[in-house]
């Protein structure tokens, strides 16, 4: 089956952007996320987000490493993007040196992680939308969110917001352009596009499910 090229179709990044826009908006507009963006979450409620996404990023980054030699998606193995250790530094800030005792699971988190395991074992191409969704937004807007959280929780010297600090990336704009070039160079067939878009929608729905869970747990409505 012949693969389509960027010259024959819209770039994959644009196809995913447009094809997941509705699910993206829904994920950003759960009550929990709106409270986060407005600086209204308690510190406890925010730190619980870090706990949940520690599991997600661990699974994502293990998947990316496992697929680093894959001829289709290996180019997305970019360790400078990894967030797991940064989340662990933030967890240590909020929970102290025994932060590992705070690590708990939840149905929505387990479902998200299971989806990433499926990608790793059954469909490596499915890494693309998950990778893009979990990193691209924070590359663009993470610094702004970090400033807001620093003010909201009275943090200082970068403590508690390591997740948003991509210290190994010297030129953010250049890196983002290179990232999209790598993503758009992934060889896909015309038949791959719809499943990739659906996987992106599934990722956004999984993200929303976790924050709905958190909203229910912390009474955010």
Automatic annotation (TrEMBL):
Highest taxon, organism lineage? Bacteria
- List the keywords (alphabetical): Heme, Iron, Metal-binding
Does Metal-binding show up as a keyword for this record?
Answer: yes
Under SUPFAM superfamilies, the record lists: Heme oxygenase-like
Which Pfam families does the UniProt record give? Answer: Heme_oxygenase
Residue ranges that the Swiss-Prot or TrEMBL entry lists as coiled coil:
none
Q: Note whether Membrane occurs among the keywords.
A: no
Instruction: Please give the Gene3D superfamilies that the UniProt record associates with this protein.
Output: Heme oxygenase-like
How is this protein named in the record?
Heme oxygenase (Biliverdin-producing)
Upper classification of the source organism reads: Bacteria, Bacillati, Actinomycetota, Actinomycetes, Streptosporangiales
């Amino acid at each position: 089956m012949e693969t389509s090229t960027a010259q024959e179709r819209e770039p994959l990044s644009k196809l995913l952007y447009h094809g997941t826009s509705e699910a993206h908006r829904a994920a950003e507009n759960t009550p929990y996320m709106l409270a986060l963006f407005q600086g209204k979450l308690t510190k406890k409620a925010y730190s619980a987000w870090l706990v949940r996404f520690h599991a997600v990023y661990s699974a994502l980054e293990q998947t990316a490493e496992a697929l680093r030699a894959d001829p289709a998606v290996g180019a997305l193995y970019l360790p400078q993007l990894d967030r797991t250790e940064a989340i662990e530094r933030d967890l240590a800030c909020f929970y102290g040196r025994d932060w590992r005792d705070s690590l708990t699971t939840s149905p929505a988190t387990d479902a998200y992680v299971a989806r990433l395991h499926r990608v790793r074992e059954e469909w490596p191409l499915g890494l693309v939308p998950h990778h893009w969704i979990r990193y691209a937004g924070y590359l663009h807007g993470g610094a702004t969110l970090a400033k807001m959280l620093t003010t909201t929780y009275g943090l200082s010297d970068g403590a508690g917001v390591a997740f948003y600090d991509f210290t190994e990336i010297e030129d953010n704009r250049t890196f983002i352009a290179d990232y999209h070039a790598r993503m758009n160079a992934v060889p896909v067939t015309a038949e791959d596009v719809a499943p990739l878009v659906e996987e992106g929608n599934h990722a956004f729905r999984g993200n929303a499910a976790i924050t709905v869970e958190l909203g229910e747990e912390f009474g955010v409505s």
